[in-house]
From TrEMBL:
Keywords: Oxidoreductase
Domain of life (superkingdom): Bacteria
SUPFAM superfamilies: NAD(P)-binding Rossmann-fold domains (SSF51735)
Family: Belongs to the short-chain dehydrogenases/reductases (SDR) family.
Classification lineage: Bacteria, Bacillati, Actinomycetota, Actinomycetes, Propionibacteriales
Keyword Oxidoreductase: yes
Protein name: Short-chain dehydrogenase
Pfam families: adh_short
Alphabetized GO MF terms: oxidoreductase activity
Length: 254
């Protein structure tokens, strides 16, 4: 019998580790993908030791086209029952002042990799009439954001892409979920360039709990945390331009 796998991208730290741990608790064999090979191996060793599951690592940079294509090709030939598209990053700053290569990588990772990896695993899932794709979006998906325009746009893409796939696959046995965390206790903001933003942060394990409850309920998307749901809902009533301008100030105050 062919071994089935759960795949988690961005799994060397933060939310990726929390997703990998939960899947390992459920007895899943894992393929973990991230840029930082040493950290990835440490995570894999810990999961093998604590949960006794098979864990393989793939040190790849999914923002780069050759790595992304090679990994997608591998997954298309692998029996994947769960894909967690978690890898992604944001950048704080005015677009005119950012490096072009960083912008290109942000779009390629946050939107391109999500799409290509989902495309790679879907034919097998549909043929087996079972599987799950979890795409990590953000509460930023509901709100254009000055000084994080690229990030909010890519996460809006992830949300819309996921909901469209959810509808497309209805009745197929394959579930698709976009999870929209708010501020979470990871290295996201430090890497984005401003760790002082949004200091009221949820824990990765809380986001994972929310994710799997929503997946079981066959929801197309879920916002993690009551406060984050309220904020995401409130943005529907504010003029888009006004909300985009005040977002940086709001993020400093909360």
């Amino acid at each position: 019998m062919q071994t089935e796998w759960a795949v988690v991208t961005g799994s060397s730290s933060g939310l990726g580790v929390a997703y990998a741990d939960r899947l390992a608790q459920q007895g899943a064999n894992l393929i973990l993908a991230a840029r930082r090979a040493e950290l990835l191996e440490e995570v894999a060793a810990d999961l093998r030791h604590r949960h006794g599951v098979r864990v393989e690592t793939r040190p790849v940079d999914l923002a780069l086209e050759p790595d992304r294509t090679a990994f997608a090709d591998e997954l298309s030939a692998t029996s994947v029952h769960t894909l967690v598209n978690n890898a992604g990053f944001g950048t704080v700053g005015k677009l005119a002042e950012l490096r072009r290569d960083r912008i290109a990588e942000e779009v390629a990772l946050n939107a391109g990799a999500v799409t290509e990896l989902a495309h790679a695993v879907l034919p097998g899932m549909v043929a087996r009439r079972r599987g799950a794709i979890i795409n990590v979006a953000s509460t930023a998906a509901f709100q254009a954001m000055s000084t994080m325009a690229v990030y909010s746009a890519t996460k809006a893409y992830v949300l819309q892409f996921s909901v469209g796939l959810w509808a497309e696959l209805h009745g197929s046995g394959v579930r698709v979920l976009a999870v929209c965390p708010g501020p979470t206790a990871t290295r996201f903001f430090a890497y984005a360039g401003d760790d002082a933003m949004l200091k009221q942060r949820r824990q990765p394990e809380q986001v994972v709990d929310t994710t799997f409850r929503a997946l079981e309920a066959h929801k197309p998307f879920v916002v993690d945390g009551a406060r984050n749901r309220a904020v995401a809902f409130a943005t529907r009533f504010a003029p888009r331009g006004v909300a985009a301008r005040i977002a940086p100030t709001f993020m400093k105050l909360t």
